[in-house]
Structure formats: C-alpha cells, structure tokens
Amino acid sequence: MRLTQTKAELRAAAAIRPRAVVMTMGALHDGHAALLAEARERVGPDGSVLLTIFVNPLQFGPTEDFDRYPRTLASDLAIAKNEGVDLVFNPSRDELYPNEPSITVHPGPLADELEGVFRPGHFSGVLTVVSKLLHLTAPDLALFGEKDYQQLTLIREMVCDLDMDVDIVPVPTVREADGLALSSRNRYLSETERDEALVLYRALSAGAKAGMNGPDAVLAAAQAELEAVPSVKIDYLALRAPDLGPVIGPGEARMLIAARVGLTRLIDNISITLR
C-alpha cells in the first residue's frame, strides 16, 4: 500500500485498471471497511482500490465541528491495509485548495431541502471536493454509503448531468448489532446519549413496518417512537421517493431522519415499501 500526499505523487502512482475509489474524511470504522471490501470485490485481485482521506473544510458550516473532527491517520492506514487498499491519497488543505476556491459546484434545488435547510452550503462543498477527487483519481467506480443518502443522490445527479465517466456504486448502511448506524460522530456520544440515539433506528423500523398502510401511517408510526424519547431533538423526519422527490403512489420510498442527541447531530435513513 502506498501513501501519497500531493497531487504530483498521486498522478505518478501506477494506473492499474479497473480502479475504484472510496472517498472519506478519515476516522474510519466498519462502515468504511465495508466500502473498501466492496471496492476490492468489484475490481478483483488485479484491479486497484484507492482511498482518499481529507477533512473537507468547504462542507462545514461556521458553527460545525471541523476543528474537533477526529483525525486518526495511523489507525485509518491500518484499516486500509487490512482491506487491501493499494493507494491512499491524504492531501493537506493547502494541497487541495492552494487558493480559496472561487468556482464551486452548484448542487441544484435538492441541496436546499432536508440537510440543506440545516446546513446551508454543505452540499456545494461536498460536490466540489467529490468533483475534484474524481478528476484527480480518475476511477472507473466510486463507492458511497447509503447512510448519507441525500449526498449519494446529489453525487449521482452531478455525475449524470456533467457526463462524468464513472459508475457510482451505493453500499448499504452498516449498523451496530442494536441498529445504530455507524458514524465517525458516534464517538462523541456518552453512554446515555448512545442509548437515546437508538430511537432513530427504532423510528425508521416502525415506519418501515407500517408501509403496507400507506405514507400517513409510516410517518405516524415513526413519530410515535420519537415522542417516547423527548431528549432527542428532531431536525426533520421525511418520507420521499427514492430520488428524493415527492412520494407518488405505492412502491419504493425512502424515510430520512436527522436529530440532535446531546451536542451530536446524527442522520439515518431506511428503504420502505409502500402499499
């Protein structure tokens, strides 16, 4: 496994095909390991897997946790090596943004909904860095977790609208045994807060079970679970079509939730079949 930290080093690295990339902000956990394992499976033993580690300042708001976001490069590299990563790109802020960017990716109207209401400008920062990293790594495949479902949806739209020659591969959310979605921010939770955070998955699961009774029943079932833990402050609970447009008729849908548990903000989602 080779570690590169400059764009010149990355360009000089062996260009083995097929090539898959997994983009992260570090603080890797089993969810990231699942992405890397899926990448290795898809490219086979003769392909190459690239991991990027970069805490992207453009996607953090002025009151968010950029400075305290965990940086754990040594353990990240150990996980990467264990999952068969060939190349790691870990640039500094100055390397990726030598100047304050004056041109960024405009993510369209979906970026102003759901997460965008609470994190204005977030998805412009996400799509700008994803676009840069796709250009620099030139992969055949890019893998993203479904936990960040709105992000995944917007990346798919960007790749389609801008005719980027890469396949976006979604990977299901990895959960703890009790259902809590894996997140680098889970480490901020106290023991009590972690127990409280389980209500997110209980609400999503209750909504999924109510799918046979239609959208109103789905939302009511989820809301009932959330009301049982008033210390968890809900930013939104939404039921959308798989492309995050409005739900129209029966079929597949996606329920999304964002909440604050103590000082930690968590998101989650689940696929639901509506009857």
TrEMBL record:
Keyword line: ATP-binding, Cytoplasm, Ligase, Nucleotide-binding, Pantothenate biosynthesis
Residues reported in the UniProt entry to bind ATP: 25-32, 145-148, 174, 182-185
Gene Ontology cellular component annotations, sorted alphabetically: cytosol
Broad enzyme group: ligase
GO molecular function per UniProt: ATP binding; pantoate-beta-alanine ligase activity
Domain of life: Bacteria
Binding annotation for beta-alanine: 59
Active site: 32
GO BP annotations listed: pantothenate biosynthetic process
Main location: cytoplasm
Binding site for (R)-pantoate: 59, 151
EC number, as in UniProt: 6.3.2.1
InterPro entries: Pantoate_ligase, Pantoate_ligase_C, Rossmann-like_a/b/a_fold
UniProt cross-references to CDD domains, sorted A to Z: PanC
Gene3D superfamilies given in the database record: HUPs (3.40.50.620), Pantoate-beta-alanine ligase, C-terminal domain (3.30.1300.10)
Pathway linked to the protein: Cofactor biosynthesis; (R)-pantothenate biosynthesis; (R)-pantothenate from (R)-pantoate and beta-alanine: step 1/1
Compartments where located: Cytoplasm
Catalytic activities: (R)-pantoate + beta-alanine + ATP = (R)-pantothenate + AMP + diphosphate + H(+)
Function of the protein: Catalyzes the condensation of pantoate with beta-alanine in an ATP-dependent reaction via a pantoyl-adenylate intermediate.
Miscellaneous comment: The reaction proceeds by a bi uni uni bi ping pong mechanism.
Family note: Belongs to the pantothenate synthetase family.
Subunit comment: Homodimer.
Annotated NCBIfam families: panC
The name this protein goes by in its record: Pantothenate synthetase
Taxonomic source organism: Kribbella soli
Gene: panC
